[in-house]
């Protein structure tokens, strides 16, 4: 027998609480140091990118922690906080899944990347 929808909501809220508490208590320190000019150039490039996420999603937390380790900031859009963020994700990425990184490649083409491990590996290569 499957748990009721209200029970699943309660379970998700409890797990989300523990995930976010762990993330706050054990926030990773940046492991990458860049020259100020290089950091400014990277910040400029990443300012046009977007990470679509859910605040308490463990896979989204995994990507946000990688961003902290790599000392990079990408604008975040919480898809449940604003319906327009979810609409953007569905229109551009076509999948109702987070995390999703919207970025521009070296040719200027807009790309949508899913899967936390793929996103983390991509970010590590910047």
By DSSP, the count of extended strands is 4
Stretches where pLDDT is under 50 for at least 5 consecutive residues are none
Q: What would CATH call the homologous superfamily? A: Glutaredoxin
Round the mean pLDDT to the nearest integer and report it: 96
**Cα-atom Rg, whole angstroms?**
16 Å
Please describe the biggest sheet, giving its number of strands, its sense, and whether it closes into a barrel: 4 strands, mixed
What percentage of the residues does DSSP assign to strands (E)? 5-15%
Query: Structural class, judged by helices and strands?
Result: alpha+beta
Q: With helices defined by DSSP (H or I, 4 residues minimum), what is the helix count?
A: 5
- Give the proportion of residues in helices: 40-55%
Which series of helices and strands comes N to C? HHEHEHEEH
CATH-assigned fold name: Glutaredoxin
CATH class: Alpha Beta
The best one-word shape is: globular
The end-to-end span amounts to: 47 Å
What is the strand arrangement across the widest sheet? 2-1-3-4
Number of domain modules:
1
Q: Which architecture would the CATH scheme give at its second level?
A: 3-Layer(aba) Sandwich
